[in-house]
Amino acid sequence: MAFIEFTFPSANGLDTVRGWKITPLGAPKACVQLIHGYGEHSRRYLHMALAFAEAGIAVYADDHIGHGKTGRLAGRLGDPCAKTFEDYTADELTLFSLMKDELPDVPKFVLGQSWGSMLARDMAPQVGAELKGLLLTGVVADLPRGAQILADPAFQSDLADHPHAANNGWFDSIFDGMLDRFGPNAAAEGRWIAVDPRILENDASDPNSCYETCMELTRDFLQLHVKLETMEWVTQIPRTLPILLMSGSDDPCGNYGEGLRKLADALQKHGNPVTMRLWDGWRHEIQNEPPIKAQVESELIDYMLSQI
Known about the structure:
Strand order of the largest sheet: 1-2-4-3-5-6-7-8
Number of domains: 1
CATH architecture: 3-Layer(aba) Sandwich
Helix content: 25-40%
Strand content: 15-25%
Number of helices: 11
Structural class: alpha/beta
Shape: globular
Order of helices and strands: EEEHEHHEHEHHHHHEHEH
CATH topology: Rossmann fold
Number of strands: 8
Mean pLDDT: 97
Largest sheet: 8 strands, mixed
CATH class: Alpha Beta
Oligomer: single chain
């Protein structure tokens, strides 16, 4: 097993994207591009990547612009200086091309968590024909406030006046009226993210994580969400592409399962083989919860190996 770091220029024209790969012992049975979420970084998935590699699956990942090692070394953690959300998608397409060039004959998968599940869907029309499966976890879908905030004149004014300043609570406001079950201050304290408070404490102390994101990054998230909610991307992928949808039943990012059901319905109507898995009682980061994370990893591995 080998851990190798690499870089490539970002589509934003400013930054160097920091990526890495883990290769298994011997020839890989499959390879997967792992796309991390909003405000976090790819090394939070090392435990998952190691489990995949032990199962013979090579893993490729990077830190998005404004995130993780990419953002920190650029001196702009939380501020990616993206022209639009298309810069993030373009960077992930670059990473996919790198994986494809290095492992041309190995079955390929894309796995996206949260914001990563959005980027995975956005790139799927361009790479779907080359995939054995698309895996979406912590799926962001059916957020009622998304389009409303994007159209709000106050949001647009803040964006125009201070594009690189902190988002001033706009991101948290996406979940207004959705977090009552988690108690007061659930948005600010991130209690919707995980059941185990140690996960939140660990992430808060991580110098490569950043949940104080800028107005432009919030705009990029909202614009991509609005685009994906049209479901146009579904009509642009191969009908034969298998898709796994996996989230916690108490994850507000997928509107507590309703977003996954709507997405599954659209995909099934298009003809795609869909597997949907809701983890009862768990929240956004199912891949990090100590009681279930090994089983989550096992199910993801089993799904990929079953498709090759």
